[in-house]
Design brief:
The protein is α/β, with parallel strands linked by helices and 238 residues long. It has eight helices and nine strands. It has two domains: 1-47, no CATH class; 50-236, no CATH class. α4 packs across α6. The radius of gyration is 21 Å and the shape is globular. The chain starts with 5 loop residues before the first helix and ends with a strand. The model has no long low-confidence stretch (mean pLDDT 89). The structure holds zinc ion (2 copies).
Amino acid sequence: MRVNRKPQTAGVYRQYLNAALDLFYPTRCAVCESRSSDVLCCGCHDELPIISGERCDRCGLPTVFDTPVCEGCKGVDYGFDTAVAPVSYGGVGKQLVRALKYDGDFAVARRVMAPLMVGSLVERRYERVVAVPMHPSRRRMRGFNQAEVLAQEVAGFIGVEVSGGFEVLRRVRDQVELSAVERRRNVHGAFRFGGRIKGTVLLVDDVFTTGATMSECASELIRAGAGEVHAVSFCRTC
Ligand SMILES: [Zn+2]
Ligand SMILES: [Zn+2]
């Protein structure tokens, strides 16, 4: 009986080839899964929807001209002084958020997301870094809070401590199964700071959408004694 050994041989060759490639390219791109010398391949890196050019000084929305307050946030009473994000929420930007949030890929936070976030910051002295908290039950389910992961990495880059221990911002109400309008209403009073904080605080989250969550966290930090709160997220909806 003739035995076709070809597929088996091809499989063995492929294994050797993969092992050899792993020596040179031990990592796979977090977005397209191709072999890459880093957590993001050059092609996906080039496709990152970087927000460049002019933006609103207050909410970070891309604008035609540099403006202290854009049309979108005129009349909106944000709790933070400024908000900024280096990437718009779409394409590779969105996929990186998902890689961190759902795959627990902390390397993308360290290698790609946090450096871009730090690069987007306006030069100023921050006394403390605070992460937008996740409700404890949700945190238990996921095992980590992606905003905390980003806050740790950003804090490491700028050499500032992350707020922790008792003096930490807590989420006292979750937002499960609520409509967008209900979520905006529900976020009011959803956070508590367990102590006192002072100076200029850098507030960190993964995505900025309406700004309601960042705003409510910032208001609570101001109530707890912060002088200024500046928000940074990896992505923003534009
Ligand atoms: Zn890729
Ligand atoms: Zn604005």
